[in-house]
Structure formats: structure tokens, C-alpha cells
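= Paired protein data =
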Amino acid sequence: MRPMLVLNSESLYTLPLGLTRLTETYSRNLSGQIMALTLGTIPVIILFAFGSKYFIRGLVSGALKG
């Protein structure tokens, strides 16, 4: 909610805000919404695929006491 209150221009919206505005604008076009949500999640999946080793290493090192 905070980014929506702070950002004045739609060009500065974050990805979740942009997708929310897209689903409000095209509420009848379900295939367009699904395509936009898919395109929004692909970069996150790619980043996790390449960085999962470091991500998991960070989780494990923070969980161990010693």
C-alpha cells in the first residue's frame, strides 16, 4: 500500500503495483491478465534458478549455531 501512496507517476510503479493496475484496467480479459502475471514471474524464476545455490547457502549458514 505504501508504494501506491508515495509514487505519483505510473511509470515509477513497482511490478506488483503495475500488475494490480493492469488487472483493474483489463478486468474482462482473463488471458491478458494471465499472460502479464506469467511475464512478471519469469524474471524471478530465472534469478532463483541462477542464484539458488547462494540463496540456500545463505539460509543454511544463518540457521546453524556455532
